[in-house]
């Protein structure tokens, strides 16, 4: 049985940058549906008593488990996304991470632009990640429910670019949603810890 992970803040804590109404739908409906569907699909199968990351890794790439993977991947990705944000987030990372970002992307602004470009160029639904790969920081795009977990990569934070994540607050303005995430929401302390 997979349980919903509680949000690390109140539904209204991220207002006005992410509305309670958005979280009520995103957490209370979309994410809940992924958890419920995962439980339904895993019941009575070898996935039933696995940890969520194991379900994601072991169902990945198998046609017969595609739907189960989609739901498990979405549960894991959303839990990571909830924990990528905080009240009064955004701004600059802790110094050591900031230095590393500047070294690898040229400047913090260049990094932010590249992340935003990735968000805008992800056609359709998906996720934008900052990951560590071979010791280096990379920006990664994944489509639909795909996740860096299956490639053994350690993400630092993610941005959900499924339309349901921003439509109520930003309608079709994904660029504004990405800017808002950088300016007010990213939990850099947690990203640095990762
Ligand atoms: Mn979502």
Task: Give an account of the 3D structure.
- With 194 residues, this protein is mainly alpha-helical.
- The chain has eight helices and three strands.
- A three-stranded antiparallel β-sheet has the order 2-1-3, with helices on both faces.
- Strand 1 and strand 2 form a beta hairpin.
- The radius of gyration is 16 Å and the shape is globular.
- Residues 26, 30, 78, 160, 162, 164-165 line the site of manganese (II) ion (MN).
Which key features would you list for this structure?
single chain, 194 residues, mainly alpha, 3-stranded antiparallel β-sheet, 8 helices, 3 strands, 49% helix, binds manganese (II) ion
A few lines on this structure:
The protein has 194 residues and is mainly alpha-helical. The protein contains eight helices and three strands, in the order H-H-H-H-H-E-E-E-H-H-H. Helix 1 (20-42) packs antiparallel against helix 3 (66-82), helix 2 (52-59) crosses helix 3 and helix 5 (108-121) runs antiparallel to helix 7 (174-185).
Give the DSSP E fraction (strand runs of 2 or more residues).
5-15%
Helix content: 40-55%
The shape is globular
Which whole number gives the mean pLDDT? 97
Structural class: mainly alpha
Q: What's the gyration radius in Å?
A: 16 Å
| Ligands (ions, cofactors included) | manganese (II) ion
In total, the number of strands is 3
**Tally of individual helices:** 8
N- to C-terminal separation? Answer: 27 Å
Task: State the major sheet.
Answer: 3 strands, antiparallel
**Low-confidence regions:** none
